[in-house]
Amino acid sequence: MASETSVSAASGAHGDGLPPEGERRRDFLYVATGAFAAVGAAAVVVPLVNQMNPSADVLALASIDLDLTPIQPGQAIVASWRGKPIFARQLTPQEIATANAVDIKTLRDPQTLAERTKPGNEKWLITLGVCTHLGCVPLGAREGENRGDYGGYYCPCHGSQYDIAGRIRGGPAPKNLEVPTYAFKSPTSVTIG
């Protein structure tokens, strides 16, 4: 008789194997409370994350138009895009020949000049003016600045040297100067970004 009573108590109030009504209600309250907390957390987090998105004035600078007309062969200009310097250089035929003569197997970050310029516009080299070692701004884009042993850019902070195609040739920098996304709108006008 005692064993029948314990079996009926273990199987629930109704003897059908379901938990008593109070336990089902409690489980529902746990699930409802968890769902309510999740919705509340999302209501707080979404505006917080959204306010970290770039503002309209920053998005307006996501791309810039650059007029290349004033750049003479062998010269470069420095522009600013997204708070970083941009080097735009018009290469001379001699500089193009020099860059193309380099055996890319000897380069730390092997790239040809053609891979770093747009087809049909090989004379225009556009790179970020940020050393790939520690983010310094290399010299060589302005008139009279030290262009290093390879005639391109020289970072005086730690001695990184880039050739005329912006490829790393000496010093601690691990990679070539980065080529940003850009497209020519005309033979002397480019949109960066």
Short description, anyone?
The protein is an alpha+beta fold. The protein has helices at residues 2-10, 21-50, 56-60, 93-101, 113-116, and strands at 64-67, 76-81, 84-90, 124-128, 151-155, 160-163, 168-170, 182-186, 189-192.
Can you put this structure into words, describing what you see?
This protein has 193 residues and is α+β, with helices and mostly antiparallel strands. It has 2 domains: 49 residues; 135 residues, Rieske [2Fe-2S] iron-sulphur domain (Rieske Iron-sulfur Protein). Helices cover 30% and strands 22% of the residues. The chain contains 5 helices and 9 strands. A 3-stranded antiparallel sheet has the order 1-9-8, with no helix packed on it. A hairpin with a 2-residue loop joins strand 2 and strand 3. The chain is elongated. The N and C termini lie far apart (84 Å).
- CATH homologous superfamily annotation of the largest domain: Rieske [2Fe-2S] iron-sulphur domain
Task: Measure the end-to-end span.
Answer: 84 Å
CATH architecture of the largest domain: 3-layer Sandwich
Indicate the low-confidence ranges by residue numbers: 1-13
Give the count of helical stretches. 5
Q: Level of helix content?
A: 25-40%
Kindly report the spatial arrangement of strands forming the biggest sheet. 1-9-8
Structural class: alpha+beta
What would the average pLDDT be, to the nearest integer?
Answer: 84
How many domains is the backbone divided into?
Answer: 2
Quaternary state of the chains? single chain
